[in-house]
Design brief:
Helix content is 23%, strand content 29%. The protein has 4 domains: 109 residues, Chitobiase, domain 2, CATH 3.30.379; 178 residues, Alpha-Beta Barrel (TIM Barrel), CATH 3.20.20.80; 68 residues; 160 residues, Galactose-binding domain-like (Jelly Rolls). By secondary structure, it is α/β, with parallel strands linked by helices. 43% of the residues are buried. Strands 1, 2, 3, 4, 5, 6, 7 and 8 form an 8-stranded mixed sheet that branches. It has an 8-stranded parallel sheet with strand order 15-10-9-20-19-18-17-16, with helices on one face. The structure holds acetamide (ACM) and zinc ion.
């Protein structure tokens, strides 16, 4: 029995003085055996610190109605400046009846506050801080995140809630990706069409989608961030990723043709015409209006993924190249970045660009945001540039597991030379306010600890994360805890049962799936059997609310669903082909070639044969094909339909063609249909999809073989 006593005492002490699960863990921490109660606290700030002390006082007042400033009768909390401390650093000295916070600068106050918030424990008797001595400062000055608000829009209220979460983790940079092809999201008064036209797009289903921030709203976000110790760094993309701007002002492009705000993702050939002065007047005007909204010393100009085709074909750009003595279009891009850098410098701002701005040479005072890996980082270092490393948080949890986030290391070849820090960008093609949390939580916890401490997260990070995950979930943020995608579904036809089996893959066990068919609806978790044809929708729900757009599954019952199929050659295996029923399972594809219903052949002419089992009267043969020029998918030139009664002798029923142009445009699904004037009898039907040939000169894939994609051979 006596031997158990120390163990019992130790267990008791754990219960009494459980250490706060701080993230990031401080550089130095010593827990003391007592508490500082927060009911009767009075803040005494050094002269000059009163303003920065406000968030601290607000926090204390929220916990305890009796918290005040400068009341001698209460327990004192001293806030003092200590110029000896490292930048952004702070020291906490918490004793039972007096506490002291020393800070190096204003940022130190926010960092101290972030730690004190996490140390605050509320028990029945009230709130307290465990007594402790903590000395802390960051390893990296640039502890950033980036949010793409172009592909999907995030309202101001939402951004404020997100900034709250960043501040809690001492993340101090919010890189706001404000413009891109699919939406221009910031008001520019001199160019109203940027937001009247450029902030809106018409989706494939006819929905109008978009939004933008007025300059007043931008100021509100910048102010809110500042009140939480966060600097907002704006990004205005130049000279590429600007289709939304060109939709508003076509004269800014080389071709000057009117193009819509695109609804698809990827890289577009139309970019600003940097050869003409009109573009430079526009950029000057935009910077004149926008730069004053952002106190940040840095201004991000994008500069990534700029196809050079338009400049190559543009006489104005070519004239500019010759006038400036530039050997090629890469040098023209470098010239344009340098010119923009000069415009920003005149406003006292340092230019940041994605690592493509290294191509063709860039001034060494620019900051490079490295997104394409270590080689680009080495290039930036060799060129003398400071840099920001990245870890893309929009990456699927299957490829970017939590373990890989924990291993993230912003250094280049083991060294921090010229490394300011990092960002964890979220590109929003697949994200929006309903599910951003799934990309950033819990990833942001180990990430923040890495940037703060400069070391890999402490071994107990997963354990410390738990209360933080519980808290963000209680505030409505969905989190990823299983390294699995948020929600996908697969569906297959089951010939033996003559129905379709829908199987859900849910990223969390507490996701449920709302389903709706033409005259039935409900909720399921793992699987659902469907007998009725029609369009079915599946919507994942969490905390009772949709967390992403519905998946729609169009199902058609036709004669081919009961047929035996032969496909030759087999399609590329990466799109999940079912050799038995893949082209005759009653399932149609969506606009995404990756949805499992589409099958693709790169080069050959696929032949699809169905054996209907017995002779049937046929009124229609139809195959839907996809065109998505951006990813090298073209409609077949024609589809040849043949019928047979014995499977040996064939007669041609019809050659179905189309008149859809194959220039880069929106994705199109086209049905190649044959409807004989009088019904034909046949047991076998066959379709040959004739490949369109090489990608056209107007496309990014020019000269390469094209793909044919088809989803279903429909027989009626
Ligand atoms: C980028 O991902 N295009 C910077
Ligand atoms: Zn041009």
């Amino acid at each position: 029995m006596p031997r158990l006593l120390p163990l019992i005492l130790w267990l008791l002490s754990l219960g009494l003085h459980a250490q706060p699960s701080l993230i990031p863990w401080p550089r130095s921490v010593e827990w003391l055996d007592s508490r500082f109660r927060l009911e009767y606290v009075s803040l005494h700030a050094d002269p000059g610190l009163e303003v920065v002390a406000t968030p601290l006082l607000d926090f204390l007042s929220a916990i305890s109605a009796k918290a005040t400033a400068n009341d001698e009768l209460l327990h004192p909390l001293y806030l003092r400046r200590d110029p000896q401390l490292p930048k952004e650093g702070y020291v906490l000295d918490i004793a039972p009846t007096r506490a002291e916070v020393r800070v190096s600068d204003a940022a130190g106050v926010f960092n101290a506050l972030a730690t004190l918030r996490q140390m605050t424990t509320t028990a029945e008797g009230g709130s307290y801080w465990p007594c402790a001595r903590i000395a802390d400062h960051p390893a990296y000055a640039w502890r950033g995140t980036m949010l793409d608000v172009s592909r999907h829009f995030y309202p101001v209220d939402f951004l404020e809630r997100y900034l709250d979460e960043l501040a809690r983790l001492k993340i101090n940079i919010f890189h706001w990706h404000l413009t891109d092809d699919q939406g221009w999201r910031i008001e520019v008064k001199k160019y109203p069409r940027l937001t009247e036209v450029g902030a809106w797009r018409t989706e494939a289903d006819g929905r109008r989608y978009g939004g933008f921030y007025t300059q007043e709203e931008v100021k509100r976000v910048v102010r809110y961030a500042a009140e939480h110790g966060i600097t907002v760094v704006p990004e205005i993309e130049f000279p590429g990723h600007c289709r939304a701007a060109l939709a508003a002002y076509p004269e800014l492009g080389c071709r000057k043709d009117t193009l819509p705000v695109p609804t698809t993702w990827g890289v577009f050939q139309d970019v600003y015409c940097v050869g003409q002065e009109a573009t430079w007047t526009f950029m000057q005007d935009v910077l004149d209006e926008l730069v004053p909204l952002f106190p940040s010393a840095y201004f991000h100009i994008g500069g990534d993924e700029v196809p050079k085709d338009r400049w190559h074909a543009c006489p104005v750009c070519q004239r500019r190249m010759h006038a400036e003595g530039l050997p090629d279009e890469h040098a023209l891009q470098a010239w344009a970045v340098k010119r923009l850098q000069g415009m920003l410098k005149a406003k006292g701002k340092t230019l940041i660009g994605w690592d493509e701005i290294l191509e063709g040479g860039v001034d060494s005072t620019a900051v490079i945001e490295v997104w394409r890996g270590d080689d680009q980082a080495r290039k930036a270092r060799a060129n003398g540039n400071r840099m920001i490393r990245t870890i893309y948080f929009d990456a699927s949890p299957a490829s970017l597991t939590l373990e890989r986030v924990e291993q993230f290391d912003p250094r280049v070849d083991g060294s921090d030379l010229q490394v300011l820090g990092a960002e964890c960008p979220v590109w929003s093609e697949g994200r929006d306010p309903r599910n951003l949390g799934y990309s950033v939580f819990p990833r942001q916890f180990p990430y923040a600890e890495r940037l703060w401490t400069g070391d890999a997260p402490r071994a107990d990070i997963r354990e410390r994360m738990r209360p933080h995950v519980a808290r963000v979930e209680s505030e409505g943020w969905i989190t990823a805890t299983q390294d699995a995608d948020l929600f996908t579904a697969s569906i297959r036809y089951e010939p033996a049962r003559k129905d379709w089996l829908v199987t859900a893959q849910r990223g969390r066990p507490d996701i449920t799936v709302a389903f709706a068919g033409s005259d039935t609806s409900g909720v399921f978790t793992d699987s659902l059997r469907v007998r009725e044809a029609g369009t079915w929708s599946l919507t994942p729900l969490w905390q009772g609310k949709p967390v992403q757009d519905a998946l729609t599954i169009p199902i058609v019952r036709h004669l081919g669903v009961e047929a035996a199929q032969t496909v030759s050659p087999l399609p590329n295996p990466k799109y999940g082909f079912d050799p038995a029923k893949g082209m005759s399972d009653g399932l149609l594809g969506s606009e995404s070639f990756r949805d499992g219903q589409w099958q693709g052949w790169w080069g050959p002419d696929p032949v699809i044969t169905l054996d209907l089992g017995q002779e049937q009267e046929i009124t229609e043969l139809s195959i839907r094909c996809l065109q998505d020029v951006a990813v090298w998918i073209l409609l077949p030139r024609e589809v040849i339909y043949e019928t047979s009664t014995d499977g040996k002798h064939w007669s041609t029923l019809e050659r179905a063609t189309h008149d859809v142009p194959n220039d880069p445009g929106p994705r199109i699904i086209h049905a190649f249909s044959a409807r004989p004037a009088t019904p034909t009898k046949a047991r076998y039907v066959r379709a040959t999809l004739v490949n369109a040939g090489p990608m056209p000169a107007s496309s990014l894939g020019a000269g390469n073989p094209s793909w044919v994609f088809a989803d279903e051979f429909v027989v009626r």
